[in-house]
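// run 5 | inverse folding | seed 20
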């Protein structure tokens, strides 16, 4: 914990802001998925992204730093931050900063493995590329909807 605090203090101001926003949104999404329907949670996050939108593209953080902040906080969280929590939180942050991101949710079936018949995974795409949640076997997943907004 102390080393995490020291690392946080050495970050540049913009990265510290992204880490704090990541911590806030990851916590909100983690709790929200337990208390709200997915539709309600996404609606609240959409309002957040619009209401607190970054003023201009000139002050917008880099895409890679935004997703880095979400991963950094999620990896150090005392609770399990699933791919869905990470994807939904990252999408809200990216949208707030003016990026046109999309959450994708996919499933795959394990043929012949009845003990685990389905796997699911969530990831974020922006500008037709995966920016969070890349897996080596992501091509094996069937996207359940064009966009899980």
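// decoded
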């Amino acid at each position: 914990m102390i080393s995490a605090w020291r690392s946080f203090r050495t970050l540049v101001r913009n990265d510290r802001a992204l880490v704090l926003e990541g911590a806030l949104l990851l916590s909100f999404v983690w709790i929200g998925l337990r208390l709200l329907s997915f539709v309600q949670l996404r609606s609240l996050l959409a309002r957040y992204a619009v209401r607190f939108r970054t003023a201009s593209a000139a002050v917008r953080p880099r895409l890679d730093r935004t997703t880095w902040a979400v991963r950094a906080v999620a990896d150090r969280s005392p609770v399990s931050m699933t791919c869905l929590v990470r994807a939904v939180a990252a999408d809200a942050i990216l949208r707030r900063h003016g990026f046109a991101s999309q959450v994708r949710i996919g499933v795959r079936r394990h043929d012949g493995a009845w003990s685990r018949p389905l796997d699911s995974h969530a990831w974020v795409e922006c500008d037709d590329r995966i920016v969070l949640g890349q897996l080596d076997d992501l091509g094996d997943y069937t996207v359940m909807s064009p966009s899980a907004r």
